[in-house]
Amino acid sequence: MPQSLPHLTPTGTAHMVSISTKPSTHRTAIAVGEVRFSNPAPLSLIKSNSLKKGDVLAVSRIAGIMAAKRCPDLIPLCHPITISHVGIELDLLEPKEVMEDARFGGVKIEARVECTGATGVEMEALTSVMGAALTVVDMCKAVDKGMRVENVRVVLKEGGRSGVWKEEGWKGISEGGVIE
C-alpha cells in the first residue's frame, strides 16, 4: 500500500496521476449508501408512487447512471474513462422502531460500475450512489426537510494491481444484504 498520496507531487502540489504505463484490466467497484427519512411521509408516498415529481426509485436509478458517467466533470483529478456498465439497485429501508435513526425508514442504494482500462472505477461508483441519493432527497424534500444521506462507501473493488478488496461482512442488496 502506498505511503503517500498519489495525487501530490514531492513538493505537495496536486496533479493528475499518469496511468500511461498501467495495463488495461477489467475493473469493478461497488459503492453503497442510504437516505434516511425523518418522518413517515416519504416512505409511504414512494410505496404508493404518489409523489408529485413521479417514481422516485426509477428517476433515482437513472440519475445514478448519469452521475457515474459525469464523474470526471465533478472530481477534478479523475480520469475520463470508458465505462462499460453501471447498475443501480435501490431498495426501501423499512422503519425500525428499535433504531432511533431508522425509525422512519429510507432508501438503500447500491451502484456497480465496470470498465476495462488502466484505472479503477471507485470514484464513479461513489458518484453514482451520491447522484441517486441526491435525487431521492430532491424528489422527497417537499415532505421531509430532515432527510440524511449516510454510510456512503466503497464495499468492493476488483481489478488492477491490487486485485480484489471487499468490505468484511458486506452482502449486496441482491444477496439479502441490509444496511444497518
From TrEMBL:
Domain Molybdopterin cofactor biosynthesis C (MoaC): 16-160
Disordered as annotated region, ranges: 1-22
EC number of this enzyme: 4.6.1.17
Pfam families: MoaC
Pathway: Cofactor biosynthesis; molybdopterin biosynthesis
Keyword terms, alphabetized: Lyase, Molybdenum cofactor biosynthesis
Catalyses which reaction(s): (8S)-3',8-cyclo-7,8-dihydroguanosine 5'-triphosphate = cyclic pyranopterin phosphate + diphosphate
Gene3D superfamilies linked: Molybdopterin cofactor biosynthesis C (MoaC) domain
Protein's UniProt keywords contain DNA-binding: no
Coiled coil: none
GO biological process, any: Mo-molybdopterin cofactor biosynthetic process
Any one GO MF annotation of this record: cyclic pyranopterin monophosphate synthase activity
InterPro entries referenced in this protein's UniProt entry, alphabetically: MoaC, MoaC_bact/euk, MoaC_sf, MoCo_biosynth_MoaA/MoaC, Mopterin_CF_biosynth-C_dom
Alphabetical list of NCBIfam families matching this protein: moaC, PRK09364.1
Protein name per its UniProtKB record: cyclic pyranopterin monophosphate synthase
Species annotation: Delitschia confertaspora ATCC 74209
